[in-house]
Design brief:
Number of helices: 2
Largest sheet: 3 strands, mixed
Number of strands: 8
Order of helices and strands: EHEEEHEEEE
Strand content: 35-45%
Distance between the termini: 69 Å
Radius of gyration: 17 Å
Structural class: mainly beta
Strand order of the largest sheet: 1-2-3
């Protein structure tokens, strides 16, 4: 007798983005992967491949998020500013880590 209610077992693999990039490996894509990302020397596990700048800031506890700038560092040392609504896909080649910078409260006329 078959058991049709038996749950399917799906193995989730956690990919450490920083380690994969340093070792020159391509970061895999797909719903069977979770990712470890480094934000300000702290690792965070994310369950989706693509996040907005705002989502990364909130994940790192940067609240209110609009008081921080998010930068993305690549393996070659290049640093790029990430906008709050900009989508970052973690499996893109060369992403190493993220850094935040507190914004001066006088910026933007506040």
């Amino acid at each position: 007798m078959e058991n049709h209610n038996k749950p399917e077992i799906i193995e989730i693999v956690i990919i450490d983005i920083e380690v994969f990039v340093r070792e020159g490996k391509e970061v895999p894509r797909g719903h069977h992967y979770h990712y470890l990302i480094m934000v300000d020397r702290q690792k965070y596990k994310v369950e989706k491949e693509c996040l907005t700048g705002k989502e990364i800031l909130l994940l790192a506890g940067k609240v209110p998020f609009d008081r921080f700038q998010l930068n993305q560092r690549f393996k070659d040392g290049k640093v790029v500013k990430i906008a709050y609504d900009q989508v970052v896909c973690l499996a893109e080649p060369g992403i190493e880590k993220f850094m935040t910078i507190p914004l001066d409260q006088t910026e933007g006329g506040r």
